[in-house]
Amino acid sequence: MQVKEIHHQGIGAVTVGGRRLRIEDVLSVAHDGAGVALNTEPEFARRIRSGAAYLERLLADNGTVYGVTTGYGDSCTVTVPAHLIAELPLHLTRYHGCGMGEYLDEQATLAVLVCRLNSLAQGYSGVRWELLEQLEALIQHRILPLIPSEGSVGASGDLTPLSYVAAALIGEREVLHAGVRRSAAEALALIGREPLKLAPKEGLAIMNGTAVMTGLACQAWQRASYLTQLCSRLTALSSIALRGNRGHFDPRLFAAKPHVGQNEAAAWIFGDLHADDTEVIRLQDRYSIRCAPHVIGVARDALGWMRRDIENELNSANDNPLIDGDAELLLHGGHFYGGHIAFAMDSLKTAVANLADLMDRQLALLVDSKFNHGLPQNLSGSRGERASINHGFKAVQIGSSAWTAEALKLTMPASVFSRSTECHNQDKVSMGTIAARDCLRVLELTEQVAAALIMASVQGVTLRQQLPDSDAAALTPPVLQFMREVGHHSAFLDEDRALDADLRALSGLIRAGHWLLYADV
To answer: pTM of the full predicted structure?
Structure first.
């Protein structure tokens, strides 16, 4: 049986080739179900074919091309006999089939495929049009290579994980297709395509690049950006519950320190707090409330240069050697080195872990009756004699502390742990993929802390409104709407109950960017 339909076309397609992609383009395919379509302009196709044709001419003239007429890496001094050149790409894809660890999930795999397609579409890789079409087909039909997450040092690119992409294109190894794990050859047959026969440089072109770390970085960037918004909303809720000082977020105060992201976060929090709530319980709130814009602002401002570097990597030719068919140039270099992604991810995981630490401190204030200005211990909603046996958010705060500690532990930069590999040919490597994986784990942990603070801060505001001084807890419409929406997923906690299902549900909503928090973002 052939499966002829192309999935997800109704959502639209991202055009690849002849234009610059943004992080949002990658994620519209990976997360939102969009398709991809190769640019149909004749000039784009001509440029792709020009590179492949020039490579053919070089080989016909007995030219020397790394990874085509020579071995790979340290074996670049080994000349490959002419009659074996056609077999060489298969050996590259096969001997790199040694990845370990968990497989990338479906969304991450799609992000990787889009990143690799876009890099090859820059027109400097010497690949044929047919290869781009085969990669396009994998994305369109959601034929997803099972890519192990471990085994890349980030230079010479993501060789081992990308070998699983190359293998899928040629009908080898396993893929996930239509929810079923099957051989790549079977999946290709189901959509009416033959396995690709790799041309001499094409195995190297697919594998010798930064697509895995870049795809993961696109995901990390979006999740981190959303967390900065959510952390601002939760700071406002925590301030309301603690009867904090709105003046700490006054735009006149922040005009004196013109970091853009810091001012942005302060403005969000200030707008969330009710203007009529002027009674000050404490002249200066504790740092986790008062300095929240300063913590969030670091991440907000860093996201700008991180977007620049991630999108530059996304829109780069990052294999080796590069081939300019029009100028008839063969350029050997090291564009597979993922240093920019590594540094961005090492930096982002630190900024995000600081958000976890901030929210964990806010949660600790909320649950402690010594600091929460009249709220019940552990935010328990129980009353009367039953209050003696109910413990509210006591264990949630312990869990939050554990998740925060693990996130902070993972901020050790991966990029400084370069290892000399492959007979000291790859003697300085980026570790970009490890940095990106670490960053995603830090994001996961921080989202769990945020889920805990969502529950606790909403509980705290609700409890505050039940107290005699409830006028001090007037709510702005956005905050009131947010609390109502949270209530659909986690009910007010009066009697103790297991909260893991609530936490998992809220963590999933955070990861998906469920709530529209600030309309101008």
So the answer is: 0.94
